[in-house]
Specification:
- The structure holds two protein chains of two kinds.
- By secondary structure, chain A is of the alpha/beta class.
- Chain A is built from twelve helices and eight strands.
- Chain A has a seven-stranded parallel β-sheet, with helices on both faces.
- In chain A, helix 8 links the parallel strand 7 and strand 8.
- The two termini of chain A are 32 Å apart.
- Chain B is α/β, with parallel strands linked by helices.
- Chain B has one domain: Cobalamin-binding domain (Rossmann fold, 3-Layer(aba) Sandwich).
- Chain B has five helices and five strands, in the order E-H-E-H-E-H-E-H-E-H.
- A five-stranded parallel β-sheet of chain B has the order 2-1-3-4-5, with helices on both faces.
- The mean pLDDT of chain B is 93.
- Classes of the chains: A alpha/beta, B alpha/beta.
- At the A-B interface, helix 2, strand 3 and strand 4 of A face helix 1, strand 2 and helix 2 of B.
Chain lengths: 315, 131
């Protein structure tokens, strides 16, 4: 792979950004050469994660936030993740629909990604894609997770600021007490605030925040929005900026970046190990034999895993 | 390395019927492709810009309004102008038989009318994708 490609990414060339993203998604040989250059020039962008259940308005919020960031002269990269089918390996990536008006703005770059087997609400190559957009000069990077259930919380590993979007009418107060996505917010957004039940939703999140703040030094703010009417987006931007300042002041930004690099490194190793094992010629044969032995109760899955690791890794 | 076919499905122009486009999108998804669906009322410039950013192998246009001779051809020319000549361009919708040769000449490689089995489209994409 030519280092020209990475150089063109640094210049902000859209086609080169798009192509390098494809290469990291497809795990093309030799990407390390390009990513070395990219990594040396990344680290400037403010990475904002947007997560929440499906249909809560993540894409529309991102569209509204982007318009405001652009109005204040900031460039924006958007990574929109949708699920890959476990069955076909295909994906329908539909987050762009609500963002197409941004497509003609040179200061905005939008990329849709399938999860491609990753759990946790992100796509495997998302760390690389953040670095690429960052190095290409984007000031803000918005990462939209898949529509999450309760436990997909990997967004906190990549985002400097994590926004959890909820909507009125999702359940009673016990839902907010459960572990999972209600633990990860730097900012709560109660979207669709024109709907019935908004007072209750805000009150429930508020009581959660009040309990939490005993062990947190920062009280998590709650912003009410109606994204499709552009309502209260300025307030959300202000809250995001305040969080960024807080990160910088308390040196938490450095900690956050370390968490991201660790997650990225572990993911790269995981991918390489999986490829290493699964691409071995004899792997399929061994797997079939062991699966048979497991089903006839000759062996258990734990012992089988030891056999595979012994044969293909420790050797 | 794992290559996955990425395809942009777009509806240029003003007609508001996207049932066909959605069915084709779903079939391509089930065939293991990553389908970026952009929705209604797209201009050729928006479609081409999305094709660049999403780095797709294929662009599929759906149009029922009768403006295909203008809009399909605009997309084809704009793709070439932007250096995306290696992107496979296909179209579907209500396209009269007599328009097809002219469209093919302009670079719309496959045209699929009403009643086309979705497998025909999937096979065409798999066979003709250029990279």
């Amino acid at each position: 792979m030519s280092s020209d490609l990475a150089d063109k990414v640094l210049e902000g060339d859209a086609r080169s950004i798009a192509r390098l993203i494809t290469y990291v998604e497809n795990n093309v040989e030799g990407i390390a050469d390009s990513m070395r250059t990219i990594h040396a020039h990344s680290g400037h962008a403010h990475v904002i994660g947007i997560t929440g259940v499906m249909g809560c308005g993540k894409s529309t919020l991102i569209y509204e936030l982007t318009k405001q960031f652009r109005a204040s002269g900031k460039t924006v990269g958007i990574i929109a993740i949708d699920p890959t089918s476990q069955f076909s390996g295909g994906a329908l990536l539909g987050d762009r629909i609500r963002m197409m008006e941004l497509a003609m703005d040179e200061g905005v770059f939008i990329r849709s990604m399938g999860t491609r087997g990753m759990l946790g609400g992100l796509a495997s190559a998302v760390y690389d894609v953040v670095e690429i957009m960052d190095a290409s000069g984007k000031d803000i990077i918005l990462v939209e997770t898949v529509g999450v259930g309760q436990a997909e919380v990997d967004i906190i590993k990549i985002a400097d600021s994590t926004i959890v979007v909820i909507v009125p009418g999702l359940g009673d107060s016990i839902q907010t007490l459960k572990a999972g996505i209600m633990e990860i917010a730097d900012i709560y957004v109660v979207n669709k605030a024109d709907r019935q039940g908004v007072e209750q939703a805000v009150a429930e999140v508020q009581s959660l925040v009040d309990i939490e703040c005993a062990r947190k030094e920062r009280k998590t703010p709650i912003v009410q929005t109606i994204a499709k009417e552009s309502h209260n987006i300025e307030e959300l931007i202000k809250t995001i900026d305040e969080h960024k300042k807080y990160l910088e002041k308390t040196k938490k930004l450095e900690e956050q970046r370390k968490i991201r690099y660790e997650a990225e490194l572990v993911e790269i190793i995981r991918k390489k190990l999986m490829n290493y094992i699964f691409n071995e010629e004899k792997f399929k044969e061994t797997l079939e034999t062991l699966l048979h032995q497991i089903s006839v109760k000759k062996i258990d899955p734990h012992t089988a895993s030891e056999i595979i690791l012994d044969q293909f890794i420790k050797k | 390395m794992e290559t996955k076919i990425r395809i942009l499905i777009a509806k240029p122009g003003l007609d508001g019927h996207d049932r066909g486009a959605k069915i084709v999108a779903r079939a391509l998804r089930d065939a293991g492709m990553e389908v970026i669906y952009t929705g209604l009322h797209q201009t050729p410039a928006m479609i081409v810009e999305a094709a660049i950013q999403e780095d797709v192998h294929v662009v599929g246009l759906s149009l029922l309004s009768g403006a295909h001779m203008t809009l399909f051809v605009d997309v084809a020319e704009m793709l070439k102008k932007k250096g995306l000549g290696d992107v496979l361009l296909i179209g579907g919708g209500i396209i009269p038989e007599e328009d097809i040769p002219a469209l093919k000449k302009k670079g719309i490689a496959g045209i699929f009318g009403p009643g086309t089995p979705v497998d025909t489209i999937v096979d065409f994409v798999k066979k003709n994708v250029k990279r």
